[in-house]
Amino acid sequence: LNVISDCIANxxxxxxxxxxxxxxxxxxxxxxxxxxxxxVSGSSSVAGITGYVWDNNTKGINIGGSITASSSxxxxxxxxxIGTTSTNYSLNTVTVxxxxxSIADTASTHGADLTAxxxxxxxxxxxxxxxxxxxxxxxxxxxxxxxxxxxEGTL
Length: 155
Hints:
Blueprint: E1 2-14, E2 17-20, E3 23-27, E4 29-41, E5 44-47, E6 50-54, E7 57-68, E8 71-74, E9 77-80, E10 85-91, E11 95-96, E12 99-100, E13 112-114, H1 122-126, E14 139-144, E15 147-152
Parallel strand pairs: 1-4, 2-5, 3-6, 4-7, 5-8, 6-9, 7-10, 7-11, 10-13
Antiparallel strand pairs: 11-12, 14-15
């Protein structure tokens, strides 16, 4: 079982198909407790968290940027295949092909909307599985300015 967890991906990514800040393609794996922010562009299956998902579990938050593609595009994931469960959120100012979208469904290709004020609340992250308290773990998340980030635990 492949797992991507407790990570932050910021930047600019450009490509063809299956392009994202988190993972371009996620097949039979898990992506959780990930924050992404930046600009992503491609032709199809393009998104902030993962471009293409197949038979996996994806849980992440897109905290800013823009997503551009000619087809299969979303703030959270671009396209998916069977057996996929997704629970994602996105800052409501993230644009898709130059426009903002308003969505309440965490399982949608865009994830459910969050506001800038939501990103300042620890419960936004802890209700989603981010560790803010267990110092025995390798990394502990905390609020730093406009969103969450992480530091080493005190093992």
